Amino acid sequence: MPRTPPVACQYCGSSNTVRNGFHKPTGSQKVTCKDCGRHSRTAYQHRAYCASITTRIDHYQDAGISVRQTARLIKIGAATVHRTKRKLADEYRKRIETPYPIPQNVTHVIAWSGGKDSSALVIWALQHLPTDRTRFVFCDTGWESPLTYQFIEEVNHRLLGGKLIVLKSKRYSSVLDLAEQKRRFPSTKARFCTEQLKIIPMMEWILVLRNE
Q1: What is the per-residue pLDDT for 20?
Q2: Are residues 84 and 24 in the same domain?
Q3: Residues 34, 118 within the same domain
Q4: Helical spans, DSSP H, in the chain
Q5: Is 107 exposed, middle or buried (CB count within 10 Å of its CB: 0-12, 13-18, 19+)?
Q6: Residue 48: what are its φ and ψ, rounded to 5°?
Q7: For the residues 9-23, what does the mean pLDDT come to?
Q8: Average of pLDDT values for 63-83?
Q9: CA dist 24 to 28, 32, 37, 40, 119, Å?
Q10: Any idea which of 34-43, 135-144, 166-175 has the lowest mean pLDDT?
Q11: Which of 55, 56, 75, 172 is most buried, by CB atoms within 10 Å?
Q12: Is the pLDDT of residue 1 over 50?
């Protein structure tokens, strides 16, 4: 009799899983992953327990979409979205607090916007990462506050030794130029400014860096 193929883990995608019987109300197969240690089922009675739904909630949270709007998009309860977001926050907090070995043989790229969070990352990188294999990059949107530009120049001069890499879009000169060509300003539902003025210039620069 042919062996039944293993069921892939819904969280990490590993095939190193074991079957743990069936869920009585739905009859779906219960699976335990030996790699990540998480439990899952092949089918869920409540969609909110599916790993893909959790991934979508996490994605919408990063995009700044509210709890109620996320619930309407995924078609689940707002309380479930709020509870899932709290679980994700606890998991991220544990990952941050858990020390991990920092690889020394790779090039570390620190994207700095001039804000408080990315500035804290710059300070952390200066304290923990090798200086010869760390690159600090600022994607200029052409529409930052004069105080932001002044702060960036001061930090670049005092802490980074003038090694800050400034990237700009090859297609758009600023946010205003982008808005004129798109005939609209960006919003929470259409964040094309981040893609065009930050993500694409960063990806183009990284591709050039890899070929060096």
Answers
A1: 77
A2: yes
A3: no
A4: 51-62, 67-74, 78-97, 116-128, 146-158, 175-182, 192-194, 200-211
A5: middle
A6: -65, -20
A7: 80
A8: 86
A9: 8, 17, 22, 14, 52
A10: 34-43
A11: 172
A12: no
* Residue matched to tokens 């089922």: 41
First-to-last alpha carbon distance for the chain, in angstroms, is 54
- The domain boundary residue, chosen from 97, 117, 143: 97
Percent of the chain with pLDDT over 70: 92
Structure-token pair, residue 124: 């952390």
Same domain, residue pair 33 and 124:
no
Mean pLDDT of 173-180: 90
**Residue 131, token pair as written in the block:** 């200086």
Q: Read off the pLDDT of residues 93-136 as tens digits, 9 standing for 90 and up.
A: 887 777 777 777 889 999 999 999 999 999 999 998 888 999 99
How far apart (Å, rounded) are the C-alpha atoms in residues 141 and 178?
Answer: 10
In the chain, the number of structural domains is: 2
Is 72 found in the same domain as 116? no
102: in domain: no
Residue 76, domain extent: 17-97
Residues 70 and 112 in one domain: no
Does one domain contain both 116 and 187?
A: yes
Q: Which contacts qualify for 120-129: CB closer than 8 Å, 24 or more apart?
A: 122/155, 122/159, 122/160, 123/159, 126/159, 128/102, 129/102
How much is the mean pLDDT over the chain? Answer: 85
